[in-house]
Amino acid sequence: MGSSKLTFQSPAENSADAGVTRSRYDRLYTGEGAIDFIGRSKLWYGITLALVVVALAAMLVRGFNLGIDFEGGTKLSMPAGDLVAEEVETTFIDATGVTPELTQIVGAGDARTLEINSEHLTQQQIDQARQAIFEQHQPLDAEGNASPDAIGDSTVSESWGSTITNRMLLAMGVFLLAAAAYVALRLKREMAVAAMAALLVDGVLILGTYALFGLEITPAMIIGLLTVLTFSIYDTVIVFDKVRENTAGVLDSRRSTYAEEANLAVNQTVMRSISTSVISALPIISLMVVAVWMMGIGTLRDLALIQLIGVIEGIFSSLFLATPILVSLVNRQDKHKEHAAAVEAFRNGDADAEALQPEVRHEEAATRKRTVVAPQPTEPHAPATSFTWRPNAR
């Protein structure tokens, strides 16, 4: 009986030899044709730095457009109907001598509402403004009749606004401490530092966006901000869990470096992150269309807007920032520097590769094809039971 050989190959090699065509998602998951997230870390850092600089400049130069709940002040609101915002604003200025901070029409259709936000007004100024607007513009009430009662007003004192601001800052501080404690217990030290750094960037970019475009900061916006920051850190933890799984025992092998295994983890979770973000964005968009555009509910508008901005920004943070920061921190350690050098030397066929990582002794068997050879029988008609099988590595 002639000799025979059995060859063991990795799944990737088997699929390649068999001519199997993998989908784009499969290639991301197995590492074939993967996106080099980690290799482009400098690019992501550069983009992040530029965005952070713009955000900080916007916050310092333009400042924040604090809502009436934080700053205090007076708001007049009325059914918009056929009213023109600029004309009503002029009437308001003539009646009170105060230039409003914001005059806008929100909502759509019959739900359109004209809002005037100004500094704190006395009751006399409020009455004068309501009377002047009614006489010149005749706003209609819910029954379609022109009436001064169609013009509503609300006033928030400066002390109340200060209290709300302090509570907002307290809520942000408690959230950050709770998030830091969670990731410190749930993840490794380097992962916790990277996650909190990415979370800090999230907060700066979102607040910078509000400062840059003059978007109003309201209590609903703060609630939404805490929600999207929680979503961001959740997505980061999911990616880091996969990184931890892939890099377990990486120092005991010269097959790949920590950075390569981390990059594979990001590729394996990229579709999940995108799908989660898209699914999260759908109800937010629905909320903006129905509750904001059609019904003109300002509170829901603020909540929906911050969530939409946060979900979009959170994708960038989880995929392009958190893991590169993690890898940069890990690669500063001597043991990982030595391991990366050992992997490179091994791939280059360096005879001294073993000396660079002396604790690694079994890599060749894990990375090269193994063959099992059936030796020739010593006698031409010897029974098959006399064969001995011994695996040989080549």
From TrEMBL:
| Keyword Transmembrane helix applies | yes
Q: Where is the composition biased (Polar residues)?
A: 385-394
Example GO biological process: intracellular protein transport
Query: Protein export membrane protein SecD/SecF C-terminal domain: which residues?
Result: 149-331
Q: Which residues cross the membrane?
A: 43-61, 168-185, 192-213, 219-240, 278-298, 304-327
Domain of life of the native organism: Bacteria
The UniProt record lists the keyword Transmembrane helix: yes
Compartments it resides in? Cell membrane
Stated name of the protein: Protein translocase subunit SecF
